[in-house]
Write a structure and sequence with these properties.
The termini are close together. Helix content is 39%, strand content 19%. The chain contains 9 helices and 9 strands.
């Protein structure tokens, strides 16, 4: 049952916060609905989860249309967004979690009718298979985004490698938090960078302990 799973996730969120003296109100739970159909997505929204994430344009647009009655939903687009699909999706979302190139930034600038709240994706682990900006190139990359007045860098996003240990997760998430604070200290108007999007079903408790403000949870909410 989704309601039982949600209670479990919320309890884990509270437990993780308690370990590091944080309030669970500092953390936004994003329900990642990319692997489930419209009925389960609606059920999750009915349970009070009003931040939802998709990673495929067609599926996202279809769900958003079918859920037009849910006026308080904030829609997040996570994962790779091809430049040719930017125009279809960019004005329909509230947050974009995978800004990782100036070419993509330029396409967003061209197609957006409003300011888009973006997370810059950072490849903290340095894995070849991971997308994202290298840590050492992050500051220069974000500075260049000042060219685009339709983009507001609200924070940074990363993923821990599949199969990583708790120790590795702590290290990766702590590094993203440090990078986020470094950018925040610049006090750039176009890049307030106050948020961190990190932690998924298998590692969100660690991410919370290291300062996550948005966690992206799918499997743990929809498990049988």
């Amino acid at each position: 049952m989704i309601s039982d799973n949600l209670r479990e996730v919320q309890q884990e969120m509270q437990d993780s916060c308690a370990l590091v003296s944080r309030s669970s109100e500092e953390i936004t739970l994003i329900g990642v609905t990319k692997t489930v159909g419209i009925n389960q997505t609606i059920e999750l929204a009915n349970q009070g989860v009003n931040h939802l994430a998709e990673n495929r344009v067609d599926q996202f647009l279809s769900k958003k249309e079918k859920m037009s009655d849910f006026t308080d939903i904030a829609w997040h687009f996570i994962g790779n967004l091809q430049r040719r699909k930017v125009k279809s999706v960019i004005n329909e979302i509230d947050f974009f979690h995978a800004l990782d190139s100036l070419k993509l930034g330029n396409e967003i600038q061209k197609r957006a009718d409003k300011t888009i709240r973006c997370f810059v994706e950072v490849n903290v682990s340095g894995e070849d298979s991971k997308q994202g900006i290298a840590s050492e190139e992050l500051e220069t990359f974000i500075e260049q985004l000042a060219l685009f007045n339709k983009i507001k860098v609200v924070g940074l996003m990363t993923m821990a490698p599949l199969g990583s240990t708790k120790e590795q997760q702590h290290e990766i998430f702590a590094r993203l938090k440090h990078l986020q604070e470094t950018i925040q200290e610049k006090k750039w108007e176009f890049a307030p960078c106050t948020q961190t999007s990190m932690g998924m079903s298998n590692d969100f408790p660690v991410a919370i302990q290291e300062g996550a403000t948005f966690i992206r949870v799918g499997t743990a909410l929809f498990k049988e």
